[in-house]
Amino acid sequence: MGQRRYGLRDDQWKRIEGLLPGRDETVGVTAKDNRLFVEAVVYRYRAGIPWRDLPERFGPWKAVHTRFTRWCERGVWEDVFTQLTADADNEYAMIDATIVRAHQHAAGARKKGGRRPTPSANKTRSGAAKAA
Asked: E strands of 1-119, at which residues?
């Protein structure tokens, strides 16, 4: 199977499939579409879209969202992320100056004619000081 833009690679899937609910050996309903569901969640977050905008190929968006919420409550996603970050290649953590820009005020530059507030300007008098 070729690499899909927002899909999981086979090696990634093999690392997490044993952690997911709905396997044959677990109690409860057997899930036939765990991989499709996980890829729907990955697609949603990587594309930055609302749940309602999930493509139809993933099934009803509300069902995907409900299942996602249940897995969150059960700690399934935490286990998955722990497994996948064990040998992270930091593919999505690369940041350099070509994509990060800071506004001049972000670096603490003063505005023209502006003064830095004095530390005492932010202090309020206590009740004891007023009474004196």
From this structure: none
- Cα gap 130→70, rounded to integer Å: 56
Q: Which residues, including other chains, have CB under 8 Å from residue 58's CB and lie 6 or more apart?
A: 36, 37, 39, 40, 43, 64
pLDDT band (50, 70, 90) for residue 3: very low
- For residue 107, is it within any domain? no
Q: How far is CA 49 from the centre of its chain?
A: 13
pLDDT tens across 93-125, in order? 555 555 556 666 666 666 666 666 666 555 555
Return the closest-CA partner of residue 16 out of 108, 70, 99, 82.
Answer: 82
Q: What pTM was estimated for this model as a whole? A: 0.59
Domain limits at 17? Answer: 10-85
Q: How many domains does the chain have?
A: 1
* Backbone region of residue 108 per phi and psi (left: phi > 0; alpha: psi in -120 to 50; beta: other values): left
**Residue among 53, 21, 48 nearest 37 (CA):** 21
